[in-house]
Amino acid sequence: MTDVQMRPEAEIPATDEKAAGVSTATSRRVVLTGAGALGAGCLLAACGTDTTTAGTTGANGGDFSNDPVPAGSATAGANGGSSSGGSTLAAVADVPEGGGIIKGDYVITQPQAGTFKAFSKICTHQGCPVTKIDGDNIFCPCHNSTFSIADGSPTGGPATKALPETKVKVDGDNVVSA
Questions:
Q1: CA-to-CA distance for 140 and 131, rounded, in angstroms?
Q2: Which of 49, 68, 84, 148 is buried most deeply by CB count within 10 Å?
């Protein structure tokens, strides 16, 4: 008969992992947990654009509301500032004839003397803000789309949809939302 003797743990030589205090099960667990978290993060990022609301989509879609409301406002007229209840967008004297200004969330233009228009300053191509008005054109710097100051329609670049218009009127010395 063979006599089997057990040696104490101290006599068994430690492997490099055991000497370092690292367990292979712990390492696998950490890697798998990290991979799972990364996958979940990617999935959530991919689901970030909500296109369920009819007529509006995010920066990738382009169909923006035809009546944009400024950030922080409950309604289009919530900012007050005029005697007729509309929000003051600009002073009439600040909007040049045959041009316009970018103020707040809007591009306010005066294509002809006494005719004022207001458009969203968010480009319909990929959601960048427009930054310049030169002559008859509103410019988006991201992909060089241009829009008409008269009606917000695209005049060049990759954008194919007009800038959403907000109805305005003159109230005293101000251009206000109608």
A1: 6
A2: 68
Give SS3 for 134.
Answer: strand
Question: Model-level pTM?
Answer: 0.55
Q: Where are the domains of the chain?
A: 15-43, 88-177
Cα–Cα distance for residue pair 132/141, rounded to 1 Å? 8
Alpha carbon distance 93, 101 (integer Å): 11
176: which strand partners?
A: 88, 169
By the 8 A CB rule, do 62 and 124 touch?
Answer: yes
Query: Which tens digits make up the pLDDT trace of 111-139?
Result: 999 999 999 999 999 999 999 999 999 99
Is-contact 163 151, C-beta < 8 A? no
**143 near 132, Cβ under 8 Å?**
no
Contacts of 59 (CB under 8 A, 6+ apart): 49, 126, 127
Architecture of domain 88-177: 3-layer Sandwich (2.102)
3-state class percentages of the chain: helix first, strand second, coil last, to nearest 5 = 20, 25, 55
26-39 residue pLDDT tens: 677 777 777 777 77
What is the chain's mean pLDDT, rounded?
Answer: 76
